[in-house]
Amino acid sequence: MSPPRAQPVFLNLWRIHFPLPALLSIGHRLAGALLVVALWPALWLLDRSLRDPAGFEQVVGLLATWPVRLLLWLMLWLLAHHLLAGLRYLLLDLDIAVERQQARLTAGMVFIAGAIVAAVAAWGLLP
Amino acid sequence: MSGRHLAGLRGWLWQRLTALYLLVYLLLAAVVLWRAEIRDHADWVALLGQPAVSVATALGLAAVLLHGWIGLRDIVIDYVRPAPLRLLVHGAVLLSLLLLAAWSGLILVRLHA
Question: Is A76 in contact with A84 (CB distance < 8 Å)?
């Protein structure tokens, strides 16, 4: 009987090699959770801007400052990433691109497309 | 299929229905905001006060909160291990989403008051 192969067992998250679809899944969840948190400041901005003319001007002023724009840009990136990754899951539901090679390819495409949206948004949002 | 399984399937379906609604709403909102000329508070209130926009936005807020609840519930089920702690986190998430729902309702009601 041959001795069992000495397989490396990595339970350390920093040493586990994640395939691209796994990273996409983690990113999708992380982005989703952060977007829910972002609903608080988003609702505050909506509330304030609708309340009265002074509130509207306050929100317009806030949206012109660079820290707010940076956060807004980050949220748009997260949203684009979450949305595109979600569309990929809908395609997987329809049995489209389920094979490993294709699944890895579409995962890569989502990362790249999200980054492209972020780049375009940066063009419009950041000074 | 047991009731528990059915509950999981229902969540799965609602997650996708709300996602599709949000996709359409966000695309339409982007187009409307792009084309509208919002110079002041009155313009902004007039835009959001249109019945169609108000209803679509109310549905959008409801959809995002439901979508968020299902997603966060899945995350909590996967990562929060001890059952009592999980229950506590579920409760905290649900409470915060209900507060957001109440606030959303208040904003839209005040808009039409």
Answer: no
